[in-house]
Amino acid sequence: MRDLTEAVQDYVGSEYYLFLDPALKEYAESLLHAWCEQIGDEVAPETVGQALKAVGTLGVPVDARKAFPDVLRDFFDFLKKT
Predict the structure, then answer these.
(1) 78: which of 16, 21, 47, 50 fits an S-S bond (Cβ 3.0–4.6 Å)?
(2) pTM higher than 0.85, yes or no?
(3) CA dihedral in degrees (15, 20, 71, 54; nearest 10)?
(4) Which residues contact 52 (CB under 8 A, 6 or more apart)?
């Protein structure tokens, strides 16, 4: 499996990111990096849930935190197609 933090960089340079809501772009990359750091080396249902909770506590606007599941879903779609 490819390194998730490298995948975030690829995602940020992709069309997926280009079409994100401009208000989310300001926070999407840092939220995805924080999520990846929380996941660590083992992507499992438990770590995914814990990482989502951790992202929810970051000091970013509430709207960005609420939209993060959509950003994450878009990121996963990107991963499936690469």
Answers:
(1) 16
(2) no
(3) 120
(4) 35, 68, 69, 72
Tokens of residue 20, six digits: 């994100």
- Rounded Cα–Cα distance for residues 28 and 36 (Å): 12
Helix axes 62-81, 22-39, angle to 10 degrees: 70
C-alpha–C-alpha distance, residues 10 and 6, integer Å: 6
Task: Identify the DSSP state of 57.
Answer: T
- How many Cα atoms are found within 13 Å in the side-chain-facing hemisphere of 70? 12
- Residue-wise pLDDT for 30-59, tens only, equals 999 999 888 877 778 888 888 888 888 889
User: What distance in Å separates the CA atoms of residue 18 and residue 48, rounded to the nearest whole number?
Assistant: 25
